[in-house]
Structure formats: C-alpha cells, structure tokens
Amino acid sequence: MEIMKDSLVLRLRSLSDRTIDRILFGCGLFLTACEIYKQLFLYFIVNHGQYDWWFFPFQLCSLPMYLCLAVPLIRQKRTKTVIYTFMQDFSLLGGLAALIVSEGFCHIHWSLTLHGYVWHLLLVMTGLLLGLSGRTDLSPGGFLATLPVFVLVCLIATLINVLAPGHGQADMFYISPYHPSTQFFFHEFAMHAGILPAHLLYLACICVGAYVIHRIFAGCR
Fold this sequence. Notes:
Blueprint: H1 2-13, H2 17-46, H3 63-70, H4 77-100, H5 110-132, H6 140-144, H7 147-163, H8 186-193, H9 195-220
Helix pairs in contact: 2-3, 2-5, 4-5, 4-9, 8-9
C-alpha cells in the first residue's frame, strides 16, 4: 500500500505544468457545462421562467469553475501558485464539507442531486491533485498569501448579495446582510449575537478549516 501511494505521488509530481493546466481547464469546462445545465433546469423546470438568485453560481464551491478556466491564462508563476494553494485549501474544504452535509443538493431533483455529488467530488479530486503533485506552497506564508484571495471573493459575494434583486434573495457564501446565516450553529449564533458577528465567525471558521487542510498537506509532504 505504501509503495502504491508513493508511486501515485511520484506520477503526479512528474506531470508537467502544461498537463496540470490542461487537466484543470478540462475540469473547468466540465463544471461550466454542469452549471449551465443546472441553471437552465432551475429556470425553466423548477421556477417556470423566473430566476432564483439563491442559485447564482458564486458560492465557495463555485469558485473552482472560474479558477480552473483562468489558470492556463495566468503566466506569473507566483500568482499561479497562490491560486493552486487556494484551491487546495479552500476548494477542497468546501467540497468535503458539502459532501459530509449534503442536504443542500438532495431535495430538488435527482439530476441536481447527482450534479451536486459529481461537482463536489471533482472539487476534492482537483484539490488532491494540486496538493499531491507539489504545485502548492505549503509554507505558512503560502497559506497567508491565499487570504487576500479569500477576502476578495467574500467582497464580491457581498456585493452580489446587496445588488441582487429581492434584498436577501441572493445568499452568496451564506453571508447575506439581510438575514441570519442558514448554516448549522451559525444561524443560532446570529439570533443571539447578531448577523454580522455570526458571518465574521463563519468566515473565520472557514479560514481555520482551510489552514488545517494546509497543514495536513505540509505534514504529509
């Protein structure tokens, strides 16, 4: 078993940068096709011609779709390493969390349930690919470099939540300023401490979880 594991890691590390980028770009195309199907199904079949901003594709687990498509276009090696590390830490965390607590995509239609499982399994696989292939920066500074990316996407999510029609219909990253978090524990915390403190605690917990994954990869390497 140990020999097989070492052989797999060596094979992944022997992949060229171009091959890694092609794999990620292919994943991005597949995720995009899946998301188009999901959006069309929700718009025409579930909501009968009305768009539901709750399903706008900008959750933490949506980011790999955009990042995988963008990676081949990034020429600066340091920037690409930061994106790789972000996907290893945050996207892998999002994929694992969604698979463990899968109620969010298990109640609408069987095809969307399948979509949810395939989507998040692919997130886990891409995170493992990047971590095991040695493309990420596993130093403490490597993790710190991902935090500005996380802050940026949180700001974009907040902007969508504020500007989307309905004032609260969109809940990107589950940090809508218009209502308490729908996430377990954080909803109750928001009811007692307020929406903003609960959202900040939720985002802090995401960062802690991503750092734990970062340290696990560092320890294994």
